[in-house]
Amino acid sequence: MPLVRIDHSDARTNSAEIAGAIHDAIVGVYGIPERDRFQVVTARPATTIVAEDAGLGFDRTDPVVIQIFTQRGRSDEQKQRLYAAIADALGPVGVEPQDVFIGYVENGPQDWSFGFGRAQYLTGELAVPRA
Hints:
By secondary structure, the protein is an alpha/beta fold. It has three helices and four strands; from the N terminus they run βαββαβα. The radius of gyration is 16 Å and the shape is globular.
């Protein structure tokens, strides 16, 4: 059950396609249910997104910044496959690979509430997902 935040410039007019491509990659690599989809997409002025090359020697043209919040337990290899799948999926919707920036944050079942002020993984209302 990843929560995915997606920020991109308002020059990109295909937010739904970008979000869909990212979700499809997560479903494909992690095998989560199709309707296990929680995304927040924000289009903002390009000047409000600063994502330089971190010393890798390339230029970004119009970055898409993706933050994935999910339960811990997936291997480094699974994460690497996910990053590659997201970059591959975004190509057909017009996002260049150098413009894909992903931050991945892990947490535990106690860190989620899906409504009603309860931590449903702890109360047993939801089964804790397995990696």
